[in-house]
């Protein structure tokens, strides 16, 4: 063991760099590129990337490309050539759909069809991991680009990074303590910390559930607006309270509070999605216009925490069949689905209907 950072630590540094607007170096064998977030880059750094003389691309997902009517020759992504002289506003208008309806004609956009796209794909993935808009500026570092002083920039080995991002995150329990709550006085809160330095996740254990029997369980994804503000746009707050109340009544249960805000896109992007919903798009289309999949969550976290707590089978409080499928795939047996139908109101009726129609949620 040396004191030098591990690949996973370097990867996390890269996410922080992207959030600050700093470019990172991506290397894969002889291929190398400089990548930066389209959302956070500033005028000076954009000018520096343009001054390198290489083929500067804006990498966007196929979903964002479809909205912009840009060709996605790489399947899941498009490499849109950044025309000489384009400024920060051009880049931001392509990355962020906020003004799409006001200024619909952004083109003509020219997508690159030759050359490799794997570093562009990784750059988009890193932006998503950093909870930024999934749009990255990418410029090759191979000749004929002007030599650049890269000292101090975080350098990532692409193959390593890809494997690390795809692997389930290892979590360990840091601490647990008694927290009496309205739903049940006998409640403990457990804190689980991922080894990659990312956000912690919580388990609320009610009573002392028998580990040899299926436990009444809920995998609840963080919803700041619903859980804390009492937002009427979704059903999260009432679901959270109803689940805890049912566990309290039965005297046992476990609610995992997973920090996957906005189905894994982060609160800032969820607010962008809400702004699009105010323009008339539904919850799924809003995610797509931003460049995301409908659901970017990783439910492997949930099965890992349950296993670490000694549970192997659950009675799952959910209306989402994807959660059941994922639990079973990850080796947690779902002996029963317990429906959780609360919180319907005039503001969230369309949202819930969309989830039923497009994401297979059970009404
Ligand atoms: N991107 C996005 N996320 C949203 C929106 N509305 C709510 N969310 C998020 O959706 C997630 C809902 O989480 P859950 O209630 O655990 O999951 P679910 O898929 O609805 O499944 P069940 O509630 O178990 O039936 C939370 O992370 C919310 O922050 C939206 O319009 N867009
Ligand atoms: Zn919510």
UniProtKB/TrEMBL annotation:
Report the GO molecular function annotations. Answer: GTP binding; GTP cyclohydrolase II activity; zinc ion binding
Which SUPFAM superfamilies does this chain map to?
RibA-like
Q: Which UniProt keywords apply?
A: GTP-binding, Hydrolase, Metal-binding, Nucleotide-binding, Riboflavin biosynthesis, Zinc
Q: Where is the GTP cyclohydrolase II domain?
A: 175-339
Gene3D superfamilies listed in its UniProt record: GTP cyclohydrolase II (3.40.50.10990)
Pathway in which the depicted protein is active: Cofactor biosynthesis; riboflavin biosynthesis; 5-amino-6-(D-ribitylamino)uracil from GTP: step 1/4
Q: Source organism's superkingdom?
A: Bacteria
PANTHER family assigned: 3,4-DIHYDROXY-2-BUTANONE 4-PHOSPHATE SYNTHASE (PTHR21327:SF18), GTP CYCLOHYDROLASE II-RELATED (PTHR21327)
Output this protein's name. GTP cyclohydrolase-2
Q: What is the lineage of its organism?
A: Bacteria, Pseudomonadati, Pseudomonadota, Alphaproteobacteria, Rhodobacterales
